[in-house]
# Entry
Amino acid sequence: MTRKTMTVTTVLANVFAITAVAAVISGSFANAQPAESHYVPQYNSSGEMILPPNNIWRTWVFVGAPLTPNALNSGAASFPEYHNVYIQQWAYATYKKTNVFPEGTIMFKELQLTLPPAGFKDGSQTEPSGRGYFPGAFNGADVTVKDSKRFADTGGWGYFDFNHHEPKALTAAVQSKDMCAFCHIAGAKKDEVWTQFYRVLDQ
# Structure
């Protein structure tokens, strides 16, 4: 083998090695991407909605957390928790572009109790930051799904109760109109969504 042939062979070998390394690196970055980029509601054979897996909603866009504690509602608030509300990234992006919630939008409301009262009648307590209300234990979830065909009887949105305690139910049947939808239809600002409570949706 001549010196020129050896040089060409060495160059080609280096090129192949660099290409292989680049492919491995590229593959590693690809594998690092989120597995779920367009999550949509899943249902079982009975038509019940399946709880999104692995707490995936906590990776979605957080839109707000209204609070209705028991202590400010005669000790018996209908929803005595923070309402931590999330929406899928893709649905949020579409909404911000079109000002319309797309089909398949999930509004996931994870309920979270306040820390137990510590001596104040209004249920508040004092922490290093001052006196106020502070998040405690999770307490179930309520979920709303936009599907104009499936939920035509309730204005195009379906309402699901995944328990108002922990653990959350793994599946949930759609609620009747008199359970949830009527309140959203009557009081929510836009398309049955309480955008008036979520600044990032109400701009």
